[in-house]
Design a protein that fits this description.
Helix 3 runs parallel beside helix 5 and helix 4 crosses helix 5. The chain has a domain of about 160 residues: Rossmann fold. The longest helix has 17 residues. The chain has a 6-stranded mixed sheet. It has a 4-stranded antiparallel sheet with strand order 2-1-4-5, covered by helices on one side. With about 220 residues, the chain is α/β, with parallel strands linked by helices.
Length: about 220
């Protein structure tokens, strides 16, 4: 589902800084992979490159058979909308929309008809344990519940690749454990490949494989 070869990124300037180089990674459908590393190692940068929000200086990225590094900006936008889902630390749930309206956003962007959207949104909210609160506003939810809404939104359009950037960073340990277990289970149930960027060893331990990112690339790590 995801294949990365020789990926490199350098921040330009009077004294250019190499973020990382020679990153190789393969992630299969239904596989959940965690990436850890020191602050400033480039974990979020790696996700941004995979998502096409930033451009690599070297290497290739192939998402679901499409070489994203060869696409123009419009094609990258379409690839993100259709084949990727995102979960962030800050939730990014829109405060003026109901839970159902927030979850429906990815479907609206790709033009799914209303009846299909309503069915998919209801199913996703039920899957994350919020089926009876579709019409509630974000202010009525806890942090853990907001992240559940974000997970439902990330998966409602059946993406092939899910990217999660510190999704438990604003949650207490018990809630974080529940949320990361839910994210992993729901992504796997839909056959999506998942990449989790995290500082949390507990969160990383839920993954099928764990990598540490450093300037010279990714190396497989142990959470033990």
């Amino acid at each position: 589902m995801l294949s990365i070869r020789g990926l490199g990124k350098t921040f330009p300037g009077p004294r250019p800084r190499v973020v990382f180089r020679d990153v190789d990674l393969d992630v299969n459908p239904g596989e959940f992979v965690a990436v850890m590393g020191e602050s400033g190692a480039g974990k979020s940068t790696l996700l941004n490159l995979i998502a096409g929000l930033d451009r690599a200086d070297a290497g290739t990225i192939v998402v679901d058979g499409v070489e994203s590094t060869a696409l123009d900006d419009d094609a990258l936008t379409e690839l993100r909308r259709v084949r990727m889902g995102f979960v962030f630390q800050a939730f990014h749930v829109l405060p003026y929309l109901t839970a159902a309206q927030n979850v429906a956003l990815p479907l609206s962007l790709v033009g799914v008809e209303k009846s299909v959207t309503e069915t998919r949104v209801a199913a996703m909210l039920k899957a994350v344990g919020l089926g009876d609160r579709a019409m509630s506003m974000p202010r009525e939810f806890s942090g853990g519940e907001l992240q559940r809404i974000a997970i439902a939104r990330a998966l409602v359009h059946a993406p092939r690749l899910v990217l999660a950037d510190e999704p438990t960073g604003n949650l207490d340990p018990d809630t974080a454990g529940q949320v990361i277990t839910l994210l992993r289970a729901e992504a796997k149930a839909r056959g999506a490949a998942g990449i989790l960027v995290t500082h949390s060893r507990a969160a990383a331990a839920t993954a099928d494989r764990v990598y540490t990112l450093a300037i010279d690339g990714l190396r497989e790590a142990s959470t033990g």
